[in-house]
Amino acid sequence: MSIVLLFIAAVVSGCINTEGELQFEIDGHTLQANERLYLRLQDGSTPLTSDNQGGHASFSIINPDYKKMIGGFIHDSATGVSWVPRFEYEDVYNSSKVYLSEIAESKPRAKPVTAVQAGRPVADSNKPGFVSVTYAVYGKNREPVDDRTEIYIETSEQVVFYDNEPRHNGQTQSRAISSFTDKGLVTFTMMSSLIDSNEPNLSAIPIALYSGPTPIPIVTGGHAELSALSLSEGSLFPEFDPTITSYAADVAYGVSNVSVTASVYDVHAVLTVNGTEVPSGQASEAIVLNVGSNPIRVDVTPLTGDVKTYTVTVRRGAAGSSSNGGGSGPASHDDGLLSSTNGRLTLPAGREGRLSLGEAVRVSVPAGAAERELILVIEEVLDTGKLLFDKERLLSSIFEITKNVPENFKRPVTLQLAYDSARLAEGQKPVVFYYDEALAQWVEIGGAADEGLLSVQVNHFTKFAVFAVGSEQKPVEPKFSDIGGHWAEGAILEAAGKGLVSGYANGSFQPNAAVSRAEFAIMLMNALGTPAEEAAEYRFTDAAGIGEWARKAVAQASQAGIVSGYADGSFRPNANVSRAEIAVMLARASRLSLSEGSPTSFADDRDIPAWAKAAAAELNRLELMKGRGGNFFHPNESATRAEAATVMLRFASHRTE
């Protein structure tokens, strides 16, 4: 009597005779030329298959090394989808013939492109010591994948998986297991000495998901930034930067409408302009402009995480007027001095100017401070939630002061901020701070009382505020809200304390997020203790896309020969840095003497690019950069921020030895 089982369930059981040849018979269907059946192996090696499947209703797969099978799937090379059909065994305990059915009916419409951990891992009350984690798997249309999409999870040897198929009587598999989705969800139940079942946290173990041969990125926090933003009429001020969310543009009265073209980094993020969804990289519908200010809202909604909003205020001139040349406020002329009191000023190259926003903040630019025309803007920052962790010490509003050119001023610019002296406690004094976007923290400048304001001199613009500081107090420091219990918690805190790494403005460190090439360049320059002076200019073709917060570090690292670009001349600052790239950068920064051409001791040595082999081997020998579970180096995978912090700590320590 036949026992009807799911294909994956039967093979995972481990009770099937997997020696020699396994024959397959297809009921009412033949595999198409681009479809092929594969059987997964417990050791993670290449799945078994055969070459005579297309167009046949029967075929066989040989298991020459008698390896244990833990799952199987059909893969369509044309569409990239992998799925688990229905399966029938004559004798589930001892059979060499398998019957497949419902192949076409089970086939998914689209392949997975991302997975999101659906809630926290939970302890399984029915299986002591085990915890369960569920992933929501999505296709490119942001909808859950079809049921029966094959999902394979792979981790370290220290992890044991419980087989959730109820007819298998609690069998387990080590290191990896195969399953499939149900309504877009897949659940894995696991146990490891690295996982505390009372307070489950999977950050201590490496986890990789696949569907068939395709890796599935696991998204823990969506990327909610624009990669480009422009208008059909008028120029943005300041120039577009993904980290800047507020822009202005001036157009003449004759411009009655504009369209917005925006692009997103994250292909899974939804982009809307004034509430209407717009495909990334395509122009929105025309937006009618009234005379005066016209705010346009651009929202980026990631697959998971918070929405990020960009605002573009388009100012249309009145009838008979023309654009005022970049958004300057009314300017008065006094012996060559240009001034404005509304927070906006266009200043010709080399001219002296004064700019204020009411009585709260004043900026004085001396003659000769810049060689190019400047467009200066002062704006009060209203959304301060992600910038402040100790609001009681804030004595002024936070102001963001911007200019249209990235270069620092050639002569010091004087900044004056009003503050509330009544909020000063005994032993405290007012101090001006600027916000370091790269480090996501406030940095003390100082300040002297001048006409009831606190006055400082600066050579660049960013966010500024006045804080109360006691004689023994430190400025507001970043707090990492998401590293408690993480395997790298101690290393992260130590690296941050030494100024090697930093967190984000919302107080998180995001230890499992990937590190970008620009971020890693900053970490390296922090560890090397590079001087404050400017580095020579670099000539990457995408230099304009390198954020101002990272320009100096990338330039210094490039000048020192530590980082390099790609064959097309680009640097790709926002691309995830690979482990192979990190090895080479660290080796260059350490000035290591490398023996090219020698193989490494890693299990995946053949996957390590030739240009990175020597660096990977030497760093492993020095214990500066180690492999992951099973002695695999994983050269092409991204490094997490936690791994980067650990590596940078070792690197800094090695330099002092």
Automatic annotation (TrEMBL):
Q: Where is the SLH domain?
A: 475-536, 537-600, 602-657
UniProt cross-references to InterPro entries, sorted A to Z: Cadherin-like_domain, Cell_Envelope_Struct_Comp, SLH_dom
One protein family per Pfam: Cadherin-like
Region annotation Disordered: residue ranges? 318-343
Question: According to the lineage, what is the superkingdom?
Answer: Bacteria
Specify the protein name.
S-layer homology domain-containing protein
